[in-house]
Inverse folding.
């Protein structure tokens, strides 16, 4: 498209600060003839406290009209755990059928990994985004009594698993190493695990060039710290994906640089791009937050909308910036300015 | 007790080799007047292929008569995924109500962590062992069709959560740092998460000296690689415990030294002790497997039976052995011999 109509959700805590830098870099990278329109939405803790609302049907209707969504972070200790997560973040992922949750991990030059030996890390996790233990199925009986029982139901469908597995195979096929690992726990979660494994093996037949492996999620955490270089593309369930992508972010430079896309590949709904990190209320408002993860999320957003050259410009700028930055701490704005200058240059 | 009547389950792959060394060290450490009786059971892949059985009611009756169980490893690629896990390992944990799954992580001197800077690591994970997503609840409809739906139900009870949380608080109270972290995902798995959190907060009132914190499982994986020294005791759900204890083992020296106990604290049933590692069929029969994890599991077994001095002797021997061993690779037997000599000495 030669125009981008973007919904911007700064959200809570450091969300405002990092999104401002994301937009700065986005404006700087876009060619003159691409018209950027943005509309800001006030979702998050403030709105919840003021109105009791997290995400209404009218909100969804409004968001639906955008080409994509850029999100900072949602969450604040003043709101009970789960309210904004289920009421906003997950509600949006489910409403807009964001079934491909894309989380690349790359250890960039000049970035320190907590792993000894600074291994080469360059893989992407394709996390399912609309099923598994995230559906909100389950319930509680006899709440607050010694006889309380609480259940959580992981729901997995052939339809849902196949589309995300297929997406992951296509991504693996397009990468030089062409490797895909399925991560699950099919020796214990046998119902869901066998569905995932059967679908994975069936789709694999259509991608003979892709080398596949299966790994239990517990073993995957070991490999992520002992042999992260072995991974190319990983496809996994919603909850396992949540867990291993935080670990992946940690080993590849930290959540300060971890980007993500909540993608609806068929574009029936706008996709949403956000840093993996949270709202970090402890450092909010101090200009300390690293906006790099948000800026890399902008690159994912651009690639999703077909602006591949601009996405690449941002990624190259981030790599150069991290490799050449000094030891002195930089403010949120300084990082944004440096990257805006690089992508414009 | 002045006698130990032990069930020994060598199992598959390297299980035989490591258990032999575990028994060697056990015999060496016990004082003359403690009578050790052992009975070997042939569970695992061989028995399954020969008879189709994994663990019968008669087997459970026989095992029940022992004071404790030492297990090597169960699992072989020739058996479909899930058959031995659900049919033997988990069946036994559930039948003998092993609700405290104890997994200590300590980075011993001379052991290399994959983490840069070799942080100080000394914590224990108390993993719930009889509930959560491990219950086998759930099912599949329309199997093998494009309309298949597979569910997994995580079952959590106030009874089950409270007893393991209480056990973890008692362990934290008994340690110098007196810190306990609850690891869950209560912002997404709100039914189970709120039960865990409420029970945790209620039991905390009885342990005013214990410092508590709550952490989402995804964040916990980050801290395990960036700040593992912050942990003292962790209590968590069955599946989260499975995942983070493999990661914990990896950062604290690898699964070659990770021990575990499947404990029934009330002693209605024998507890089972096993290395965290699996049967490693790729190196089985070559005398290459590290028996240290099994030998440390023997220490946990001895402590459970009240032989604290002997447990400590083993742990001290392992620490000394690892600290003083050379660079040359040692066989399974050499490690066992070295440790047997140290504990007897
Ligand atoms: C905040 C929470 C709902 C979310 C998740 O669990 O998906 C977050 O951890 C993430 O990874 O985006
Ligand atoms: C083999 C499997 C059933 C088991 C588990 O998931 O508990 C193992 O991974 C463990 O951690 O003991």
């Amino acid at each position: 498209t030669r125009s981008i109509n973007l919904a911007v959700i700064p959200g809570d805590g450091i969300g405002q600060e990092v999104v401002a830098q994301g937009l700065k870099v986005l404006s700087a990278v876009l060619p003159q003839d691409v018209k950027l329109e943005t509309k800001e939405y006030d979702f998050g803790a403030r709105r919840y406290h003021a109105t009791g609302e997290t995400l209404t049907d009218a909100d969804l209707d409004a968001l639906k009209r955008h080409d994509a969504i850029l999100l900072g972070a949602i969450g604040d200790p003043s709101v009970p755990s789960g309210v904004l997560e289920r009421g906003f973040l997950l509600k949006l992922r489910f409403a807009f059928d964001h079934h491909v949750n894309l989380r690349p991990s790359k250890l960039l030059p000049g970035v320190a990994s907590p792993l000894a030996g600074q291994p080469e890390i360059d893989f992407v996790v394709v996390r399912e985004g609309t099923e598994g233990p995230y559906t909100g199925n389950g319930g509680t009986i006899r709440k607050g009594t010694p006889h309380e029982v609480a259940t959580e139901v992981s729901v997995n469908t052939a339809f849902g698993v196949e589309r995300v597995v297929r997406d992951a195979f296509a991504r693996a096929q397009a990468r030089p190493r062409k490797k895909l690992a399925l991560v699950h726990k099919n020796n214990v979660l046998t119902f869901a695990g066998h569905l995932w494994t059967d679908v994975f093996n069936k789709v694999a037949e259509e991608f003979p060039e892709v080398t596949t492996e299966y790994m239990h999620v517990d073993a995957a955490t070991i490999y992520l710290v002992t042999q992260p270089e072995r991974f190319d593309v990983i496809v996994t369930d919603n909850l396992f994906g949540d867990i291993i992508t935080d670990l992946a972010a940690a080993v590849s430079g930290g959540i300060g640089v971890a980007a993500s896309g909540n993608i609806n590949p068929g574009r029936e709904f706008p996709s949403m791009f956000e840093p993996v990190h949270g709202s970090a209320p402890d450092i909010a408002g101090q200009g300390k937050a690293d906006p790099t993860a948000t800026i890399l999320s902008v690159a994912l957003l651009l690639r999703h909308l077909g602006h591949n050259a601009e996405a690449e410009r941002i990624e190259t700028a981030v790599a150069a910036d991290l490799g050449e930055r000094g030891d002195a701490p930089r403010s949120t704005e300084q990082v944004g300015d440096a990257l805006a200058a690089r992508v414009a240059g």
